[in-house]
Design a protein that fits this description.
Layout (H helix, E strand, L loop, with lengths): L1 H29 L3 H25 L9 H25 L3 H12 L3 H12 L6 H25 L6 H10 L1 H15 L5 H25 L2 H6 L1 H25 L5 H10 L6 H8 L4 H28 L4
Helix pairs in contact: 1-5, 1-9, 1-14, 2-8, 2-9, 2-13, 3-4, 3-11, 4-6, 4-11, 4-14, 5-6, 5-12, 6-7, 6-8, 11-12, 11-14, 13-14
Length: 314
């Protein structure tokens, strides 16, 4: 089981890096300008990522039941750690375009893309209703917190009206709300709509990874090494180190515990790069944060899984 979990994490991460490498190579071979990459990033952020998010929530079994103890603990820990991260980053980094990116990179995990396959491997044959509900609730929360963060630090003065407007107009928030409403109402799209939504949504992740690779520069890692170190420690060590022992003490076991591993121990979300680039954050730092946390998570995810599997949590 532990070897399978390690291989799953390794294969998932290796696949991510292969796609990113193709994007990086394409930029070099085709001599793509940053403005050109930016146009495609805007297309991805406003169309493909919202369609992926809508389709994931729309097709989830969120009526199948939820563990309120698991959900409550997850959201409480997320809120507390997010608040502490906010104040810590404000003290540690003076530049606003980097503050927002660092906070987002620290709290926003790749739960959407890695959560379900990781849980299926850790708890084979388990009822995934809790996972579906967690995805439908936690991912929109991630998006709202990201919008608040990036909107706040993209402006010289905090403007509550503009922040609320930014949340309401954000395509990922709109897609999340639409997916929840469609799911709970029992609405079923005709095949002529459902198939294109599914096909375009499934292309969001590889396209986002291609653009991430095209944006990446090795010199950015050296330039931002201090801030990247902070983000990486928070994302891969502090967040799971705080959430998972609390979950164990709360008595969560099996899929309920595994879902928190996928929420708190996975690397920075790929979509965080697209959002940061579109909302005034430092895109180089955002791209590097996704790359570095994804690379190092191959080791840290295995360690967290090994530790809590040994303790009989799942």
């Amino acid at each position: 089981m532990l070897l399978n979990s390690f291989l799953l994490s390794l294969n998932a991460i290796a696949s991510i890096f292969v796609i990113m490498a193709v994007g990086y190579g394409a930029k070099r071979l085709l001599r793509l300008e940053k403005e050109y990459i930016g146009h495609f990033n805007s297309l991805t952020f406003h169309t493909l990522l919202p369609l992926m998010l809508f389709n994931n929530i729309y097709t989830s079994n969120i009526r199948g039941g939820v563990s309120f103890r698991c959900l409550g603990l997850a959201l409480t820990v997320l809120a507390v750690l997010f608040s502490l991260t906010w104040f810590f980053i404000k003290l540690a980094e003076p530049a606003n375009d980097q503050r927002g990116v660092m906070i987002q990179a620290s709290f926003r995990s790749n739960f959407l893309l890695l959560g379900m396959p990781l849980i299926q491997e850790l708890c084979p044959g388990a009822d995934l209703a809790t996972v579906s509900v967690m995805l439908a609730i936690v991912v929109p929360c991630f998006n709202v917190l990201a919008v608040v963060t990036l909107e706040t630090f993209s402006r010289k003065q905090i403007n509550v009206r503009q922040i609320l407007l930014g949340i309401a107009k954000n395509p990922l928030i709109i897609a999340s709300a639409a997916g929840i409403l469609a799911n709970l109402s029992g609405l079923r799209l005709p095949d002529c709509l459902a198939n294109p939504v599914s096909q375009l949504g499934s292309s969001a992740s590889p396209v986002a990874l291609l653009l991430l690779g095209a944006q990446f520069e090795f010199r950015d890692v050296r330039l931002h090494r201090r801030n990247l170190a902070i983000c990486t420690v928070l994302r891969l060590l502090v967040y799971p180190g705080a959430a998972l022992p609390l979950a164990a003490l709360a008595g969560l076991r099996g899929p309920e515990f595994a879902v928190l591993i996928s929420m708190f121990a996975t690397p920075t979300a790929v979509s965080s790069f697209s959002m940061a680039a579109q909302m005034g954050g430092n895109p180089e730092l955002a791209a590097s944060a996704v790359t570095v946390t994804t690379l190092l998570s191959a080791a840290t995810m295995f360690l967290w899984v090994f530790l809590f599997k040994s303790l009989g949590m799942f």
